[in-house]
Amino acid sequence: AALFMESARKGSIVSRANSIGSTSASSVPNTDDEDSDYHQEPYKESYKDRRRRAHTQAEQKRRDAIKKGYDDLQAIVPTCEQQDFSIGSQKLSKAIVLQKTIDYIQFLHKEKKKQEEEVSTLRKDVMALKIMKVNYEQIVKAHQDNPNEGKDQVSDEVKFNVFQGIMDSLFQSFNASISVTSFQELSACVFSWIEEHCKPQTLRDIVIGVLHQLKSQLY
């Protein structure tokens, strides 16, 4: 009986100790969770910092690329290098650089169109020269095949006299009709003179008159 009572007393003490321990344990904060939160919070901040740093680097790279583009435009476009007295020694703004670039591109388009027109004209001239070359080659060949042909043709002096007579007649009407006071009047008078005095029938009458005059002089 004494042993049983002693065991019961020890069991009661252990039970109370356990209940006190559990109560104390429940009242003590969970330091493991706090340690876990404490270590996790700097990781989140570090991740945000990395994202912020990556975004800053990307933005800086974009700005550097834009700046390099404007610098390249200023180096390429000749008008950007010229001194602008309205601005002075100030650095050209991006708007001015873009406007000067647009103006220069439009200028290049006009020059390209002008050069294309010149090339087209030169090609026509080359084609005409080729045709003339073929004709002269045929004339030379015909003369070589028949060297006696053409001896009875009109002399160069007579040809010149015919040409001179036609030009003298045209110049008389030209001088009487054309005003050289200004370029505008000259242009207007020239077209009017061509329409009035260079008609096919008028030119035919002039040529016939010159030929009759030369015929009377020669014979």
TrEMBL record:
Q: Which residues form a coiled coil?
A: 105-132
List, in alphabetical order, the GO biological process terms annotated in this UniProt record: positive regulation of transcription by RNA polymerase II
Subcellular location, in the record's words? Answer: Cytoplasm; Nucleus
Q: Which domain of life is it from?
A: Eukaryota
What GO annotations for molecular function exist for this entry?
A: DNA-binding transcription factor activity, RNA polymerase II-specific; protein dimerization activity; RNA polymerase II cis-regulatory region sequence-specific DNA binding; RNA polymerase II-specific DNA-binding transcription factor binding
Q: Which GO terms describe its cellular component?
A: cytoplasm; nucleoplasm
Which PROSITE patterns does the UniProt record give?
BHLH (PS50888)
SMART domains linked to this entry: HLH
Q: Specify residue ranges for compositional bias: Polar residues.
A: 15-30
Q: Where is the BHLH domain?
A: 50-108
Q: Entry's CDD domains?
A: bHLHzip_Mlx
InterPro entries registered for this protein in UniProt: bHLH_dom, HLH_DNA-bd_sf, Max-like/E-box_TFs
Q: Where is this region: Disordered?
A: 1-65
Q: Which Pfam families match?
A: HLH
**UniProt keyword list:** Activator, Coiled coil, Cytoplasm, DNA-binding, Nucleus, Phosphoprotein, Repressor, Transcription, Transcription regulation
In this chain, composition skew of type Basic and acidic residues spans 37-48, 56-65
Keyword Nucleus in record? yes
- SUPFAM superfamilies for this protein: HLH, helix-loop-helix DNA-binding domain (SSF47459)
S-adenosyl-L-methionine is among the record's keywords: no
Report the principal subcellular site. Answer: cytoplasm
The UniProt function text for this chain reads: Transcription regulator. Forms a sequence-specific DNA-binding protein complex with MAD1, MAD4, MNT, WBSCR14 and MLXIP which recognizes the core sequence 5'-CACGTG-3'. The TCFL4-MAD1, TCFL4-MAD4, TCFL4-WBSCR14 complexes are transcriptional repressors. Plays a role in transcriptional activation of glycolytic target genes. Involved in glucose-responsive gene regulation.
Q: Subunit info?
A: Efficient DNA binding requires dimerization with another bHLH protein. Binds DNA as a heterodimer with MAD1, MAD4, MNT, WBSCR14 and MLXIP. Can also bind DNA as a homodimer.
Its recorded name reads Max-like protein X
Gene source species: Atlantisia rogersi
Organism phylogeny: Eukaryota, Metazoa, Chordata, Craniata, Vertebrata
